[in-house]
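hiii, so i know i said id send this last week but things got crazy w the move. better late than never?? heres the sequnce for the chain we talked about at the cafe, plus the structure i predicted for it. fair warning i was half asleep when i ran it
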Amino acid sequence: MNGASALPPTSGSAGAEILSLLPLSGRRFARRCRERNVPGTSPKAPEGRSGVIVDELLSIRSDSVRRFLRRWYGTAGSVRDMRPAASPNVPAELVEWHTAAALVGRPVTFQDRPIALQDLAADSRGMLEFWIENQSGCFWAVDLGDARLQVFSREEKDGGWTETGEILSDFLLNCTVREAVIGGAFKFTVLVDASEVNEVLKSFEPLKFEALGSEEPEVKLWCSEDALVRMAPPPAGYSQPDGQLWMLTFAAPSDSSIERYSSRFGLEGFTKSSPARVVPPYEPPPF
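okay and structure toks below
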């Protein structure tokens, strides 16, 4: 396909390749999608976004993390549905997250990491630190005295806490989805001109999550019925002087799903990534 070429893998992408896509006009991109029978791009389809059925991401409930993990990874038959032991002060949302992660039977975090349940302890001010950036450059906590359980972050271990704008349940789902994109075995990354993003993501819905404190504030997550997209500014050296580019990482739980999207860019057969490397220390839940 004209306009796409492979570039060297980047070290922070968990095995994914960055593929450069030269800007396509809206008409050319729509025509290419129709030629490949891409759902949601037919001229006869109704206007607006369609086909989104992953309501656990669009209508967040207490079981959204568990439902998403089950759909994305499946469950391990040897792990029983149990409630792990935890301090009475640990919020139920954190207990539920660790339980849901254990049911998968394999790691569900590949870059940033949760603090193990048995190591959760509030400080003298009631701040319970529960999530850490992979280079220990950012930390997240909740105030146990806050009934809404708003999440706070700080960039230094002994620095002041700043509100993130998310409550605990939303933050945990946000991190779980983000880690699924980072650690996905079936994914690809393209650079897309800003004027073409709406057309490229026509069959996706934007998620309401905030960018993490360790990310650029422009980062957004999107979902379709069978895939995720992380939208971020391109890394240094990939910008172009005559227009803005966005870096879109598409990820799906299966090769058949990801081929549905990679075929739009003529990238069939380029989407099987190397297995994601879990950044140590990874400590599986103690149950």
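btw The helical segments are 26-35, 55-58, 64-73, 92-104, 168-183, 197-200, 255-262. thought thatd interest u
miss u guys!!
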